[in-house]
């Protein structure tokens, strides 16, 4: 899919502190933000829309399509 850029305004000192503490844990702010956006996407975008976007992008849906269960033989009392 085509990528888009998001621009937000955030307190400079808080951002600096966040980058510092993320770097101490060998984490990258951009990657953490992408992960969070994926969680938001998964939480709020309906499954059928996500499946459609996956198919449109040429990928497979997140969840495999459930196959119907085979019929169960009736129980015979003993």
Can you put this structure into words, describing what you see?
This protein has 78 residues and is an all-alpha fold. It has a domain at 27-62. The chain has three helices and no strands. The protein has helices at residues 12-24, 29-44, 47-56. The mean pLDDT is 87.
Sum up the structure in keywords.
single chain; 78 residues; mainly alpha; 3 helices; elongated
Indicate the overall shape.
elongated
DSSP summary, beta strand count: 0
Assembly state (oligomeric): single chain
Q: Biggest sheet, open or closed, and with what strands and sense?
A: none
Q: What Rg, in angstroms, do the CA atoms define?
A: 22 Å
Strand content: under 5%
Element pattern in H and E:
HHH
Q: Terminal Cα separation, in Å?
A: 60 Å
Q: Mean pLDDT, as a whole number?
A: 87
Total number of helical segments? 3
Helix-and-strand structural type = mainly alpha
Give helix % range.
40-55%
């Amino acid at each position: 899919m085509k990528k888009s850029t998001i621009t937000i305004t955030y307190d400079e000192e808080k951002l600096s502190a966040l980058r510092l503490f993320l770097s101490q844990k060998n984490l990258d702010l951009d990657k953490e933000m992408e992960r969070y956006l994926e969680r938001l996407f998964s939480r709020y975008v309906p499954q059928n829309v996500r499946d459609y976007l996956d198919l449109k992008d040429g990928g497979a849906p997140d969840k495999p399509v459930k196959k119907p269960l085979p019929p169960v033989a009736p129980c015979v009392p003993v």
